[in-house]
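User: Show me sequence and structure for the first protein, then do the same for the second.

Assistant: Starting with the first protein.
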Amino acid sequence: MAAFFPLLFLVAQHLPGGVAATLGAAQPIVIAFLAVAILHEKLSLWRVTWSVLGMIGVALVVLGRNAAISPLGVLPGLGGAVSMGIGVVLTKKWGRPEGVSAVGLAGWQLTAAGLVLLLPALLIDGIPPGIDGKAVLGYAWLGLIGALLTYTIWFAGIRRLPVTATALLGLLSPLVAAGLGAAIAGEALTPLQLLGFAAALISMVAGQLPPPSTKDHV
């Protein structure tokens, strides 16, 4: 987590949201191969195929004509996908400690990450100036809803689902953002975007299903 969050904000600073979302959608592919290396699972071509199709679908939804590519954004984006993937796979490998709830696991991991980042943050940026009420509310939202609540649900889900299938649910994030943009901001989705939306949704659902036969495992 201490690696993932700085990389996430580097991506946000150097890449358009659509490019960042597409890089994030590569996470299920990364996790599929990490599960082989760390968990010694068989590589499922079924889920890898749906992961690739899901990434393409997200790209069709969120990438615009003016999508700019910057190495300063792409490298942290890929690094963020790898760091999050390693964390997800290791969580699946080690499980939850005895007597620790999902909220406790998420809370302690976030706290540990914050402590790791505390000294670098103070040395690089110092204490943020002008912290007003809106800043406190924004921080509370990010900390309690955007981190603690979401990661509590995430860690609870990891225990119950195959690790690659769980990662495919991350495709929902850019799709929800695009859907909210259409519903609230009145942003019109082109036919190509709708095709990508459908492809990503189908990939996410199909990736939760078992492969039709064991022949697709290598």
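Switching to the second protein now.
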Amino acid sequence: MLVKWEGIVIRSVDYGESSKVVTLFTREHGKVGIMARGAKKPKSRLGAVSQLFTHGYYLCKAGPGSGMPDLSQGEIVESFRDLRQNLAATAYAAYIAELLDRLTDEREANPFLFHMLLLLFRYLDEGRDAEILCRIFETKMLRVAGIAPHLSGCANCGAEREPYAISVSQGGLLCPACLPQDPYAIAVSPSVWKLLRLFQVFDLERLGEIEVNPSTRSQLKHVLRSFLDQHLDLRLKSRAFLDQIENIGL
């Protein structure tokens, strides 16, 4: 049986001497794995469409059982060439793809995530602020993982009383009265928690220019990574390289 999916390549692993196992995040079925036989051969018609980050339509032959479908042919919609040629953009895209891969299950349709991933890659290809795009994505993926911080008042008592700190263990903002509940709460400027609250509900299609100073950027990264590390401990391979890129300011 032939099936046609619209998808984005989020992982590509060599298989044998000439083939690849490709993971797509599809509009129709979420994350699916397919076999691209012969894709590593120089003249393979499957080579380009199976490259990481490619957005396209994939015609696959699915067997009667639960085995991996074979990729028969593909049509590239967007190759994101400028993204690929920019080292920093590539690092962010790889991190975004791996985080999405690790936080989603096979064959769980999520058109919202597909659309968000597509927009992120388009913005990275256009040269938008990759660091802020990544922070927006991390914020939204915390919600996907069920660990979104509580940012509409104190997570402990519910009071709306500033100045707030952010507690990873308590799951969000802490007011001054509740601050003793977590001696490791992260002191942040008001702009940090307000941006995080905005990122949680922000529609990426409305993205304009976001001016964020270096101190706020650093605090945003620290807070989001602290939530990811304490609650999920994913150990992403792409993260070390991304951190190097951010540290040298590329």
